Amino acid sequence: MLSKLLWMLLRPSTLLLLASCLGALLLARYSSRTGRALLLVGLGGLVLCFVLPVGQWIALPLERRFPPLDPPPRVDGVVVLGGAVETTLTADWGLPALNDAAERMTEAVRLARLYPQARIVFTGGSSMPALSRISESEVARRLWAELGLEGPRVLFEPHSRNTWENALFTREMVHPQPGERWVLVTSAQHMPRSVGIFRQLGWEVLPDPVGFKAGLHPVTWWSSGTLGQRLQDLDLALHEWSGLVAYRLMGRTGALFPAPRPGG
Q1: For the domain with range 63-215+241-249, which CATH number is right: 3.40.50.620, 3.40.50.720, 2.40.440.10, 3.40.50.2000?
Q2: What is the pTM of this model?
Q3: What is the pLDDT confidence band of residue 27, given thresholds at 50, 70 and 90?
Q4: Which of 113, 132, 157, 170 could share a disulfide with 126, CB 3.0–4.6 Å?
């Protein structure tokens, strides 16, 4: 919970806004050089993010790290990481609500149909349990049932609060065996850190990145809409880079920037 709260304060969009407001206040009241510098940094950063697709440039190496899945002939299980559902909106309106990582949920349905014998596991509780009325797993259960994905092979892990616990609790629940093929579904930017965590726990998975945000051609870089959208792109990309560094320092991944294994 502490890490989530700290990121809310330290994410780039918040820092740029705070720098602009504080700089304007200091400049107006004291005409200080510090105020002028803060205002320049804050407004300059906001203008830069609006004019240039900085977020997409920073995200592209993350999204290119693992290619889209080439479906193998056999899959024993699929692990879908949480983060694609909105628990508060679901509780408020009584309907499963998704966010911009929704491809994680639809990819699970596709794979379930492609591999009818595979176990499908959703892992996700709540990143901030004190503020959540329902878990991500409960939202996933409702959504998949409405889409026809239910039954004894569909499992839910409702206690994890972050990616490390996603991997740890799911491994303890399904006990993957040597020789089994498990597919890992998460957003493309999140895949390097996720694969590193699963490897650190001794669980080799087949990456299936979805929800790509950064285009491969300049025309897509420049066509991403509003300042708000571009700041969101920047926040998301830098959050993942920060996560890679933090998890490496904590020993939760074996490499700073995990890469595909040869032949797999």
Answers
A1: 3.40.50.620
A2: 0.91
A3: confident
A4: 132
Comparing CA positions, the residue from 234, 146, 260, 1 lying closest to residue 242 is: 234
Q: What is the pLDDT of residues 130-165, one digit of tens each?
A: 566 899 999 999 999 999 999 999 999 999 999 999
| pLDDT of 264 over the 60 cut | no
How far is residue 260's CA from residue 70's CA, in Å, rounded to a whole number?
13
4 vs 37: CA distance, rounded Å: 29
Amino acid (1-letter code) at residue 207: P
What are the two backbone dihedrals, phi and then psi, of residue 206, each rounded to the nearest 5 degrees? -95, 115
Task: Give pairs for 127-131: CB < 8 Å, separation 24+.
Answer: 127/1, 127/4, 127/161, 127/162, 128/1, 128/4, 129/1, 129/161, 130/1, 131/88
